[in-house]
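Researcher: Next sequence.
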Amino acid sequence: MKILLATPSRPGNATGNAATSGRWARLLRELGHTVSLVEHYDGTAADLLIALHARKSATTVDRFRRAFPGRPVVVGMAGTDLYLDLQESERTRRTVEAATRIVVLQKLALQELPRSVRRRAVVIEQSARPPMTRTAPLTSCFEVLVIANLRAVKDPLRTALATRGMPVESRIRVTHVGAPLHAGYEQRATRETASNPRYRYVGRQPHGRTMRLVQRARVLCLTSKAEGGANVLGEAIACGTPVLASRIDGSLGLLGADYPGLFEVGATAELRELLLRVERDPRFLRQLAAAGRRLAPLFTPAREKTAWRRLLQSLKP
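Model: Next structure:
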């Protein structure tokens, strides 16, 4: 099958959409399909269009539908699609209604879709592979890793704020990986690095280096205000790294409402207590690690590839 994969963020960019589109392209090629990545539809003939991000790919979906009215369109829902644009954008709603199939990245996302299209929706969790060579944790500190681009929805400096005022005896140190995408945040992260000895912003890193940092960390902290289904959660779990995460649907849909390492969005004091607990309480850290091991089968590449195979088979007449 000849597939066009339309994405607003091409592989190599610093966004979650870029990571998703690159992985989807690889899996689809492994399934034997020809895949072309495009940002905007240019009139190329294809058997199938997969459009990542309903709002940003709306024009591409419209043009492909007009050019090939009988051919299937799969729309992948981003976090902003689900938790902002579906409520505010008629264009996004039309794109979703036009889709043959809809892909969401975690099960609670189904509740955000209009009832009229839920039967067309498929949950496909994002897979991850750990580094082939094991990277041991630092012995010089208790390293907490944050992977969050510098944009408001990620609440990227929440972990840094939580480390302020920690007891002197705490060995917690935060390493923060992420590209500066919103104005002002890079300066704030740089100032925080200079003034807070527990925090270090290292900017954007290559994916391989980032995965080694995930594996090296004692715990990964996700502070987002909204996520469609953060790839970094699967990456941490694949690496065996315990996770602390804000209590949002995008994380609850992957981790479960009973996951022990959750905190309320923006709750600096609650996050501080959780960080100190994982440092001080080995049993709690083992509890988080055990929860991650139970979830690990969700994030295997074989499982994601099988889900895509089934979805494509469902599109055949």
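Model: The chain has two domains: 2-127+300-314, 142-298. DSSP finds twelve helices and twelve strands in the chain.
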